[in-house]
Amino acid sequence: MNATEPTPRRTAEELVLVLDFGSQYAQLIARRVREQQVYCEIVRHDLPAAQIAARRPMGLILSGGPSSVYDPGAPRCDPKLFELGVPVLGICYGMQLACQALGGRVENAPAREYGRALCGRTADHPLFDGLPDRFEVWMSHGDQVTRVSDAFVPIAGTDTCPIAAVRHQRLPVLGLQFHPEVTHTPLGGAMLGNFLKQICGCHGRWKLGDFARETVEAIRERVGGDRVICGLSGGVDSSVTAALLYQAIGSNLTCILVNNGLLRRDEQASVIREFTDHFRTDLHVIDAEDRFLGALAGIREPQEKRRRIGHAFIACFKEASAKVAGARYLAQGTLYPDVIESGAAPDGPAATIKLHHNVGGLPEELGFALIEPLRDLFKDEVRKLGLELGLPEELVWRHPFPGPGLAVRCLGEVTRERLAVLRSADAIVVEEIRRGGLYRMTAQAFAVLLPVRSVGVMGDSRTYDHAIAVRCVDTDDFMTADWTRLPYELLARISTRIINEVKGVNRVCYDISSKPPATIEWE
Ligand code: XMP
User: Fold this and answer.
1) Predicted local distance difference test score (pLDDT) of residue 487
2) pLDDT in tens, 209-232
3) 307, 333: one domain
4) Does residue 179 have a pLDDT over 80?
5) Do 156 and 245 fall into the same domain?
6) In this structure, is residue 191 part of a structural domain?
7) Ligand 1 atom with minimal separation from the 404 CA
8) What is the number of domains present in the chain?
9) Nearest to 174 by CA among 109, 77, 102
10) CA distance 494 to 451
11) Are residues 46 and 126 in the same domain?
């Protein structure tokens, strides 16, 4: 059995494919489509037209991308896809590619355009149903389409971009130079909805409840009477994975919780409590603190930390799973953004941002086949699914915690002493955010221990102690994020408590960077 054999794919009744040309927004497009209750997947930009046709999509969306269509190695799609009779919507680079492939001319814009613009309709089209004559859009491009062949008709324009939207005369091919998927295009969702419902003919019947039922059935069919191991972290992803598996195979599920010494305060106890409240099946708790901290000794470089944690994890699993008789499968809570951000398609055009240790499959020699039932879902969809499966709100709304744990929040060397400082500061941050009633309103809140010391004064003495950064962000999809505007009073309380209660800390800073260009975690 191949270790990476996928769970049989559910046959979504209505499928839309997003061809990814390397846009940072490709996932956002997929989310917006799913928000219209149409199932959507991101696929490689060069997927052959025959393979696209075999999936019987109702529509295709060509994403934007960083290249110019005239770059020598610019990513292209199979031009035959325009002849499939399936409606195509090209966005930005996708529009330029469609126009170029079908006879238009694309040129470098006189000035690179980035930001808001007012777009006016120049022709009637169902894409604009329900929209006013002029509406705000978000532009982000260097090139633009300057001339279209007779095959295309311009249907909207802005002052600086006269051909901001086009339709093909004969084929169901549309193009938008602006980005309907971003919130800065306030009516973008309506345009995408029009594309899906009016042009592709989708009804929008995709529901998470169906997804749960189909996934449970698919797992049952695939696994039969075999045993499945599932790594638990206490986070929503692994809990929902375990809940799906538990529904599918009951006590044939064995869960493993690895205490890697990088967990937050009281985390192990609360995972065990929640597990025993919800599942009547085996839980093996592995104490691997020494192994992980040994592997991390002297390591400061973030990717190397992740690599070593990944290896230690695999080794732990190997040992623990060898003790579980008859296990053939391993379930993981990998999500869609993990798959994309980790550059799971290594030859794809999108850049790898971080090495997420839990993505990319386990080494084959482990002998397990992988089950990743959440691989197609976004975080907010996983939360909804968790509630559908009866998991408690407290667990479902828990802030995400990275697989490499506190190691990527303990900048510089990871030692027991430094982890103890970080853990205490982190507990105060979360406690105060909860107490202020803001836990559900923020997406993630935590402390980071910085690898610097600074001078302070406590009582009459000079101190030379650690600095803590507080990170608190708002985000829906964890792909982009903004720092939370926490009330000053709350920040003051957090700072005072950390400095008073955590020995060795004399300075607290609040991280006011958005993602991008920063990331949520510091490493
Ligand atoms: P970044 O730091 O990339 O984080 O902006 C985005 C989201 O992913 C989480 N994260 C991880 N989750 N394994 C995980 O399971 C990882 O290696 C990892 N790195 C980051 C991060 O906490 C945030 O929610």
Assistant:
1) 98
2) 888 888 999 999 999 999 999 988
3) yes
4) yes
5) no
6) yes
7) 17
8) 3
9) 102
10) 20
11) yes
Task: Give residue 283 CA to ligand 1 midpoint distance, Å.
Answer: 25
Instruction: Grade residue 355 by pLDDT with cuts at 50, 70 and 90.
Output: very low
Express the helix, strand and coil content of the chain in percent, nearest 5 each: 35, 25, 40
Q: How many CB atoms lie within 10 A of CB 327?
A: 20
Same domain, 231 and 321: yes
Q: Which of 92, 161, 202, 255 is catalytic?
A: 92
Residue ending a domain, among 179, 199, 219, is: 199
Pair 353, 431 in one domain: no
Record the tokens describing residue 288, joined without a space.
């691997």
- pLDDT score of 144 more than 90: no
pLDDT confidence of residue 44: 93
CATH for 421: 3.30.300.10
Residue 404 lies in a domain: no
Q: Is residue 493 part of a domain?
A: yes
Q: Is 341 a residue of the active site? A: no
State the distance from the centre of ligand 1 to the C-alpha of 521, rounded, in angstroms. Answer: 6
CA 269/CA 36 separation, integer angstroms? 40
Query: What percentage of the chain reaches a pLDDT higher than 90?
Result: 67
Residue 152 is assigned to a structural domain of this protein = yes
Strand order in the sheet with 165-168: 39-44, 15-20, 59-62, 88-91, 173-176, 165-168, 152-157, 105-121, 134-147
pLDDT score of 74 more than 90: yes
Ligand 1 atom closest to the CA of 379, numbered from 1: 24
Domain limits for position 360:
208-396
Q: What is the pLDDT of residue 379?
A: 85
39-66 average pLDDT score: 95
Q: Are residues 220 and 353 in the same domain?
A: yes
Q: For a pocket test of ligand 1, which of 482, 521, 522, 523 has the largest count of ligand atoms closer than 8 A to its C-beta?
A: 521
- Predicted local distance difference test score (pLDDT) of residue 3: 40
Same-domain pairing of 264 and 160: no
Q: Residue 384 belongs to a domain with what CATH number?
A: 3.40.50.620
CATH label of the domain that carries residue 54: 3.40.50.880
- What number does the ligand 1 atom closest to the CA of 233 have? 15
Residues near ligand 1 (Cβ within 6 A): 353-354, 356-358, 400, 402-404, 444, 478, 515, 519-521
* pLDDT for 347 beyond 80: no
* Residue 179 annotated as catalytic: yes
Q: Which amino acid is at 62?
A: L
Mark which of 363, 396, 429 sits at the end of a domain. Answer: 396
Question: Which residues 6+ apart lie within 8 Å of 179 measured at CB?
Answer: 25, 64, 91, 92, 137, 138, 139, 140, 185, 188
Atom of ligand 1 nearest to the CA of 306: 17
CA of 402 to the centre of ligand 1 (A): 5
- Is 316 among the catalytic positions? no
User: Are 325 and 447 members of one domain?
Assistant: no
Q: If you measure from the C-alpha of residue 126 to the centroid of ligand 1, how many angstroms do you get, rounded to a whole number?
A: 40
